[in-house]
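Q: My labmate handed me this sequence with no annotations at all. I'd like to see what the chain might look like in three dimensions before we decide whether it's worth expressing. Could you predict it?
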Amino acid sequence: MRAAWKPCWSCSAITATTSSADSLGGFLALVALLLAAAVIVVLGRFSALEADVARQSAERALEALNDRTAALSATPSDRSQWDDAAAFVAGRDAGSAFFSPTW
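A: Here is what I predict for the chain of 103 residues:
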Protein backbone atom coordinates (compact mmCIF):
# COMPACT_ATOMS: atom_id res chain seq x y z
CA MET A 1 0.00 0.00 0.00
CA ARG A 2 1.47 3.30 -1.03
CA ALA A 3 0.79 6.18 1.27
CA ALA A 4 1.06 9.78 0.26
CA TRP A 5 1.78 12.21 3.03
CA LYS A 6 -0.30 15.33 2.92
CA PRO A 7 -0.56 18.03 5.51
CA CYS A 8 -3.92 18.54 7.13
CA TRP A 9 -4.43 22.31 7.19
CA SER A 10 -7.42 22.23 9.46
CA CYS A 11 -5.74 20.25 12.25
CA SER A 12 -2.14 21.32 11.66
CA ALA A 13 -0.91 17.70 11.38
CA ILE A 14 0.45 15.50 8.67
CA THR A 15 -1.77 12.54 7.74
CA ALA A 16 -1.25 9.55 5.46
CA THR A 17 -3.64 9.09 2.56
CA THR A 18 -3.95 6.08 0.27
CA SER A 19 -5.42 5.62 -3.15
CA SER A 20 -8.85 4.03 -3.44
CA ALA A 21 -7.42 1.11 -5.47
CA ASP A 22 -5.02 0.22 -2.64
CA SER A 23 -7.83 0.41 -0.08
CA LEU A 24 -10.11 -1.76 -2.21
CA GLY A 25 -7.37 -4.34 -2.76
CA GLY A 26 -6.65 -4.55 0.96
CA PHE A 27 -10.34 -4.83 1.76
CA LEU A 28 -10.82 -7.63 -0.78
CA ALA A 29 -7.78 -9.47 0.56
CA LEU A 30 -9.19 -9.22 4.10
CA VAL A 31 -12.60 -10.46 2.96
CA ALA A 32 -10.99 -13.38 1.09
CA LEU A 33 -8.95 -14.30 4.16
CA LEU A 34 -11.99 -14.20 6.45
CA LEU A 35 -14.05 -16.21 3.96
CA ALA A 36 -11.35 -18.87 3.67
CA ALA A 37 -11.09 -19.14 7.47
CA ALA A 38 -14.87 -19.42 7.80
CA VAL A 39 -15.05 -22.13 5.13
CA ILE A 40 -12.31 -24.15 6.83
CA VAL A 41 -13.96 -23.90 10.24
CA VAL A 42 -17.50 -24.60 9.02
CA LEU A 43 -16.53 -27.50 6.76
CA GLY A 44 -14.45 -29.03 9.53
CA ARG A 45 -17.38 -28.88 11.93
CA PHE A 46 -19.81 -30.29 9.37
CA SER A 47 -17.41 -33.12 8.65
CA ALA A 48 -17.15 -33.96 12.35
CA LEU A 49 -20.93 -33.74 12.72
CA GLU A 50 -21.48 -36.03 9.74
CA ALA A 51 -19.02 -38.59 11.13
CA ASP A 52 -20.79 -38.48 14.51
CA VAL A 53 -24.21 -39.03 12.90
CA ALA A 54 -22.85 -41.93 10.84
CA ARG A 55 -21.33 -43.53 13.95
CA GLN A 56 -24.61 -43.21 15.87
CA SER A 57 -26.56 -44.72 12.96
CA ALA A 58 -24.17 -47.65 12.77
CA GLU A 59 -24.47 -48.23 16.53
CA ARG A 60 -28.29 -48.21 16.29
CA ALA A 61 -28.22 -50.66 13.39
CA LEU A 62 -25.84 -52.98 15.24
CA GLU A 63 -27.98 -52.82 18.38
CA ALA A 64 -31.14 -53.63 16.36
CA LEU A 65 -29.35 -56.54 14.70
CA ASN A 66 -28.17 -57.88 18.07
CA ASP A 67 -31.71 -57.58 19.50
CA ARG A 68 -33.17 -59.43 16.53
CA THR A 69 -30.51 -62.16 16.77
CA ALA A 70 -31.22 -62.61 20.49
CA ALA A 71 -34.96 -62.85 19.80
CA LEU A 72 -34.42 -65.40 17.03
CA SER A 73 -32.11 -67.58 19.12
CA ALA A 74 -34.61 -67.65 22.01
CA THR A 75 -37.55 -68.67 19.79
CA PRO A 76 -36.37 -72.17 18.71
CA SER A 77 -35.44 -73.10 22.27
CA ASP A 78 -38.83 -71.97 23.57
CA ARG A 79 -40.72 -73.78 20.83
CA SER A 80 -38.71 -76.96 21.22
CA GLN A 81 -39.67 -77.09 24.89
CA TRP A 82 -43.33 -76.71 23.96
CA ASP A 83 -42.94 -79.43 21.33
CA ASP A 84 -41.41 -81.75 23.94
CA ALA A 85 -44.27 -81.05 26.38
CA ALA A 86 -46.90 -81.61 23.67
CA ALA A 87 -45.27 -84.90 22.66
CA PHE A 88 -45.28 -86.07 26.28
CA VAL A 89 -48.94 -85.17 26.78
CA ALA A 90 -49.92 -86.85 23.51
CA GLY A 91 -48.08 -90.01 24.57
CA ARG A 92 -45.49 -89.88 21.81
CA ASP A 93 -41.94 -90.29 23.01
CA ALA A 94 -43.17 -90.52 26.59
CA GLY A 95 -40.63 -89.40 29.14
CA SER A 96 -37.41 -88.96 27.21
CA ALA A 97 -38.41 -85.79 25.36
CA PHE A 98 -40.23 -84.08 28.19
CA PHE A 99 -37.61 -84.80 30.84
CA SER A 100 -34.61 -83.78 28.77
CA PRO A 101 -31.45 -82.59 30.51
CA THR A 102 -31.56 -79.27 28.59
CA TRP A 103 -34.16 -77.94 31.02
